[in-house]
Amino acid sequence: MSSSTFFGLDIATRGLFTAQRGLTNVNHNIDNINTPGYSRQVLEQRASRPILMANGTGMMGTGSEIVGVNRMRDEYLDVKFRSESQYLGEWEVKQTLLEELQVMYNEPSDSGFNTVLNEFYNSLQQLSTDPSSPSARAALKEKAMMLTKYFNSVAAHFEYLQNDINEIIYAKVEEVNSLADQIAKLNQQIYNYEVTGNVANDLRDQRGYLVDKLSKIVNIEAYEVNYGKLPNGRDDMRFVITISGKALVDHNNVTHLEAVQRENKLNEEDIPNLYEIVWADGNELTIKSGELKGYLDVRDGNNGLNGSSDFRGIPYYQRKMNDFVRVFARTFNEGIIDVDGDGVLDKVSGHVDGYKLNSREGDPASGIRFFTMFDEYGKPMSSATFAAAGGTPIDYDAMYSQITAKNFSISSEIFDDPVNNISISGAAEQVGNIEVLRTLIDLRHNTYMFNEGSPEDYIKTIISCMGVDGQLSSHYLNNQTVITKQIENRRQSISGVSVNEEMGNLVRYQHAYKAAAKMIQTYSEILDILVNRLGV
Amino acid sequence: MRITNNMLIDNMMANLNRNLNRVSNYQNQLSTGKKISLPSDDPIIASRALKLRTDVAEIQQFKRNVNDATSWMEITETTLKQIGDVMQRIRELTVDVSNGTKTQDDMDKTKVEIEQLKTQLINLANTTYSGRYIFSGFKTDKALMDTDGKFLIDISKNEQIFYEIGIGDDININVAGCDLFHTGDAAEGEKSSFINTIDELIAALESGEQTTVSGMLGKIDSEINNILRVRSAVGARMNRLELTANRLDDDNINFTKLMSKNEDVDIAEAIMKLMNEMNVYNASLAAGAKVIQPTLVDFLT
Questions:
Q1: Greater confidence, B138 or B300?
Q2: What are the tens digits of pLDDT across the range A156-213?
Q3: Size of interface A-B (CB pairs under 8 A)
Q4: Partner of A55 at 20 to 30 A CA spacing, among A125, A271, A527, B153?
Q5: Which pTM value belongs to this model?
Q6: Which of B5, B38, B162 comes nearest A499 by C-beta?
Q7: What pLDDT score does B168 carry?
Q8: Which of A335, A357, A353, A360 lies closest to A345, judged by CA?
Q9: Are A302 and A315 in contact (CB under 8 A)?
Q10: Whole-complex ipTM
Q11: With 80 as the cut, is the pLDDT of residue A489 above it?
């Protein structure tokens, strides 16, 4: 048995087609070398079905054919990448924001808290060497204002930052929703293409890329679920993305996230109306990692207080500063402080027990509180108005809990007439008497003022705590960057387009094409002999 | 492992970036002169820096306090010396007129001189330092006594003004006028016992009785001794101030040195490291430029 006359031409034509598909594929790969998320495609080529020769001379080859276009992708690496990139996102955010927080304290420098406190105490010392001097008294007022303004400014900056982060959280929620919508659309398209048995390579790449982006924002798990069998016998696979166990995208359905304003503050230090992230269907959402977690932790983290995360974020530092100004003001004003460290508050001389510069024999102690707060109009509050909140008998906690770092101020008495109202004398009409002033100065070194020690120790603790957290987040970020980079490298190694390889293929297919064309030419010549020159 | 072009480029970019980060780190150190710019760069250095800054600021303030204390006490010391000189003169005059050869006329002359000296003593008792009466205890805005030697204010020996010259280290800088010019505390309107002695002397001179005049010598001597006692106490305190001033100078240098050691960059070391990082960076740039350029495309014709 012999083959038909034109069979050779058929084989050669198939060869041409195969080579052509090959070239197209090379072309496609090269074009997409820089497309994010793209996986290189490889043709699945095989010898076409051979013809069994009846005379026992074996099988006759029939050329080549393309049976599929495969996408080079390791799904395991995708899962791995997504489980790591969520932490990358989280620490990127935390590292950046902690750096911003540190800049606000401006330490160590010559203009940070330390300098302000030093100058305040130096001006007290200066006053002690010339207690009746109007200029030393005016200088003390200015230095005290510098101290209060430092706290006002840091606290205000913290609030701005909290507000900014809040806006970012809103935007990130929108981004999650938009990504989820796009993924759901792609799911439908991919499903429609693949129901016929094809693989929607490029659409899958696009979806993978969107899922990667999503995985950096929030902790997600993405997988395909088998829903049973299709009529054509294939598995009915549907794509699902969950956040903490609840589906964000279920095939072509999306449950959106929503940022709703809180009715009650989580931390008393918070600015009002912060966003809470919930499911749009009303369910509660737990965010475990990702950029969103980073933002939430820095915005809400109060070292585990009020059910916030253990992270030390803005509310924590606001609380610490509030505590500082409250204790500092109470100690300075009232002299109520644990002097001996036995855990019980003692009473020593405070500013209220001092006598004014212009006091006359028989006058009582001034009763003026040096530090109070700004009233609702932003003016320094008078000592009496401030003390009214304490009630009778005086509840000092209630009185001083009114003060926050943001409204900390000197009292209106000190503001209006520092020369007479700064009360540092231990007796009336004794302008050279600095008994009260000396106890005020001594308080600086009272290591029982705070749990952390003296005022400087307290702030030092806050700043080193922030420094350590910042350092830690840098380390985490570096580690996470290395890990994700390594996974990305492995992904690129499998899925990336290599120009060399494609050029090799280009040459290979070009040669194959040329050879197939040569075959056609040869057959043409053979047929020419057969048709035109034989017989006639 | 299969290497693709984008891997090469991505890795090169990541490495370049890392190198550049290190270059920028050293460059930053050199341009600020500080090892750290944020506490997170090194929390230990940061917290030590805070502590040392406080120490240095305090030492400098204590130095200012010591200077103020010294000026005040120098004035006190000078005044005490002058009071001593005046009393010495009074004693000489008293001794002079105590021997039997002096006439009433001599005594009258002496009396006139002693009256002048009394006025001088009262003026000295009202000495001021930058507007503050140094012997008036806490009432530095009021003069100690009037021209008759009566106290214008209540004054107690307890009215001691302290300056802080170290943490928990106070020094008493003033001499309460009652300690010097009176025995024990004095009330407003009370006559100074010291001036009273002078007045008694004047009265004795007026009476012309030599025995009474010579009898005054014992009282004068005891006042002189009192002044010497106060002077030596002031001297001892000034001595202490001087020692403290020296110690504070040393402390200031030591703590400033410590502060610098803690946070300042070792310039030579930082430059070396910067150069080293620059070399690495340049090498990685050169290598990168060579590696990412050629592909097979360059060789196919």
A1: B138
A2: 999 999 999 999 999 999 999 999 999 999 999 999 998 887 889 999 999 999 999 9
A3: 175
A4: A527
A5: 0.86
A6: B5
A7: 81
A8: A335
A9: yes
A10: 0.84
A11: yes
Query: How many CA atoms lie within 13 Å of A404's alpha carbon, on the beta-carbon side?
Result: 17
| Residue A162 CA to its chain's centroid (Å) | 13
- Chain A residues whose CB is inside 8 A of the B68 CB are 129-130
Confidence of residue A111 (pLDDT cuts 50, 70, 90): confident
Q: Is the pLDDT assigned to residue A536 strictly greater than 70?
A: no
Residues 6+ apart with CB under 8 A from B211: none
Note whether B40 contacts A467, CB cutoff 8 Å. Answer: yes
pLDDT digits (tens, 9 = 90+) for A326-385: 999 999 999 888 888 787 888 888 999 999 999 888 899 999 999 999 999 999 999 999
* pLDDT of res. A1: 43
- Tell me whether residues A434 and B161 touch, CB distance under 8 A: yes
Q: What kind and span of H or E run contains A52?
A: strand A51-52
Q: Cβ of A368 under 8 Å from any chain B Cβ?
A: no
Could you give the CA distance from residue B264 to residue A182 in angstroms, rounded to a whole number? 54
> Would you list the domain boundaries of chain B?
77-233
Q: Which residue of B has its CA nearest to A444?
A: B167
Write down the residue that tokens 């960059």 correspond to.
B265
A410, containing H or E segment: strand A408-410
User: What confidence score (pLDDT) does residue A139 get?
Assistant: 95
- Using the structure block, give the residue that is written with the tokens 């570096």: A478
B57 and A122 within 8 Å at the Cβ level: the answer is: yes
In sequence order, which residues have a C-beta less than 8 Å from that of residue B239 and are 6 or more positions away?
Answer: none
- In CATH, the architecture of B77-233 is Up-down Bundle (1.20)
DSSP state of A301: -
Contact B68 A433 (CB under 8 A): no
Question: Cβ of A503 and B51 within 8 Å?
Answer: no
Q: Which residue has the tokens 């302008």?
A: A431
* CB atoms B130 and A103 under 8 Å: no
Instruction: Write the residue in B38, B46, B164 that is nearest to A128 by C-beta.
Output: B164
Q: Is A352 exposed, middle or buried (0-12, 13-18, 19+ CB in 10 A)?
A: buried
Residue type, A447: T
Distances (CA, A) of A354 to A370, A419, A423, A437, B4: 11, 14, 4, 8, 79
**Mean pLDDT throughout A474-500?**
94
For B137, the closest chain A residue by CA position comes to: A432
Q: For residue B162, list chain A residues with Cβ-Cβ distance below 8 A.
A: 434, 438
Encoded amino acid at B80, one letter: L
